[in-house]
Amino acid sequence: MAQSLMVSSATQVATESTELCDRCGVYAKLGLVLPAGGELAFCGHHANTYAETILATAESVFLEPGFDWRGTSVRPEYVGAHRAGAHCA
After folding, report:
1. Is the pTM above the cut of 0.70?
2. Shortest CA distance to 62 belongs to which of 28, 15, 17, 13?
């Protein structure tokens, strides 16, 4: 992933992703780290569909460069640098 936003902790812009959406298998535009561990990836459609849930639960979010995620307009205060230890390329 490329870009990251501060969700509960952070969001980061990353490099181009080769991950696939965990929901439908299309190339992912957004990845997230869950507070209890583990990661999920979503295509643009599913990232925007679940934006509010992602913002409410993710520890950090990573956006593909150029991806206009709905979550940045829902919670603009979360846009910022990634947390220490977050994944970024």
Report:
1. no
2. 13
